[in-house]
Specification:
Blueprint (H helix, E strand, L loop, with lengths): L3 E5 L4 H12 L3 E6 L2 H11 L3 E5 L5 H5 L1 H4 L9 E4 L15 H29 L2 E6 L12 H20 L5 E8 L7 H5 L4 H6 L9 H12 L9 E4 L15
Parallel strand pairs: 1-2, 1-4, 2-3, 4-5, 5-6, 6-7
Helix pairs in contact: 1-9, 5-6
The structure holds 2-hydroxyethylsulfonic acid.
2-hydroxyethylsulfonic acid (8X3) binds next to loops.
């Protein structure tokens, strides 16, 4: 039987690659994002296996109505990929833009929380389902300017583990993927407010992970037998390692 997934942030980057991969693997995908034009292009490419659903995860009312707003036949979700997320700015906490902080919390924390809460009842009724949350290595390895972004991803990790505790015995599984450096997405450009040159510099001379690597991981987790749960999985490109603690010498 064809399985159905819902992917947030499906208009670009990881979400787009994950949607593409799931469809290639025989899934049907409800692709959620704010940008209708990007979703329409993905629909054009992937066809009827992809359902476009325009959604802003920070719109609490739309998220609360999410399960009921899906068309008949698309409501029995086997997989939720909580992918929508962003980093805004890399300034130190003492000078960082508060609006950027609020947006990160609204999307990475509140949005993820609300989407999860909206879709959990259906999974519990059916006694099966999988939630895959996109975290980050930034959750566990702090770096200058990572402040609220890292903290929001630490939330994603801990929320995943909390869900795991709550969902024991229900048949619903939950996983957190924590990638390090991934290239080929708009993540870095968004982080630097559209400064493409600065964004590109991050990946200069490195061979980072790709969105397809993340999609591969989601596909692997989603294909595991029902008795297996990946709690947390951390990924880095071969050229990256957790940084040593900083020391300020006089
Ligand atoms: C992104 C990882 O290290 O580029 O989640 O902030 S990092």
């Amino acid at each position: 039987m064809t399985k159905t997934a819902l992917v947030t942030g499906a208009s670009a980057g990881f979400g787009e690659a994950i949607s593409r991969r799931l469809v290639a693997d025989g899934w049907r995908v409800v692709a959620c994002a704010r940008r209708a034009d990007k979703l329409a292009a993905l629909h054009e490419e992937l066809g009827e296996a992809l359902l476009v659903h325009v959604l802003d995860v920070t719109d609490a009312r739309a998220v609360a109505a999410l399960a009921d707003s899906l068309p008949e036949g698309w409501r029995e979700l086997d997989l939720l990929v909580n992918n929508a997320g962003l980093a805004m700015g890399m300034d130190p906490a003492q000078t960082a833009d508060l609006q950027g902080w609020d947006t990160m919390v609204a999307v990475n924390v509140t949005g993820l929380m609300h989407v999860t809460r909206a879709l959990l009842p259906g999974m519990l009724d059916r006694g099966r389902g999988l939630i895959v949350n996109l975290g980050s290595t930034a959750a566990n390895y702090a770096y200058p300017g990572g402040n609220v972004y890292g903290a929001s991803k630490a939330f994603v990790e801990q929320f995943t583990l909390g869900l795991k505790a709550d969902l024991i015995g229900t048949g619903v599984r939950v996983s957190c993927i924590e990638p390090g450096m991934v290239g080929g997405t708009e993540f870095s450009a968004v982080r630097f407010g559209g400064d493409q040159a600065r964004a590109a510099k991050v990946y200069e001379g490195v061979d980072p992970l790709t969105p397809e690597d993340i999609a591969e991981t989601v596909a692997w987790i989603a294909g595991l037998p029902p008795h297996m749960n990946v709690n947390l999985i951390e990924l880095m490109p071969t050229c990256q390692a957790p940084a040593a603690p900083a020391v300020k010498r006089s």
